[in-house]
Amino acid sequence: MSSDEELFGKVEEFFFGNDEFANTLEAFCLENCAIFTEDEEQKLEYTVVYSKYQELFEKLIEDFLKANDCTLERFHSICKAASESQDEEKLSFVNLLVMSMDYDVFLMEMQRMAEAKRSA
């Protein structure tokens, strides 16, 4: 079993360097972005797509953790400890993970992708 420090580093490498992870999320977004518009009204369909995105994101992370003999609960504990530490690099990565799951960030990205697709 990897130490917490090693595991944190592996997840960071996976998040930033794994093409399959990035491509899977990008493909999902491209497949589902068409319904998103710049309108201020939040459509119910947005939350349905967001829930599916969350499930996919969590499954990809969870599968990676399982392959590295780690549970999601253990990783949450590692992230909690990292967020309470004075290590700015670790804190930045934890914040990035949290931001990756934020609805407003997701919404802005889907709107951006939808607009780019319509303009192409």
TrEMBL record:
Q: Which domain of life is it from?
A: Eukaryota
Q: Output the InterPro entries linked to this UniProt entry.
A: BART_dom, BART_sf, CFAP36
Subcellular locations according to the entry: Cell projection, Cilium; Cytoplasm
Query: Where in this chain does the record put each BART domain?
Result: 4-115
Keywords, comma-separated and alphabetical: Cell projection, Cilium, Coiled coil, Cytoplasm
Q: What is this protein called?
A: Cilia- and flagella-associated protein 36
Which source organism does the UniProt entry give? Cymbomonas tetramitiformis
Protein family according to the UniProt entry: Belongs to the CFAP36 family.
| Record-level GO cellular component terms | axoneme; ciliary base
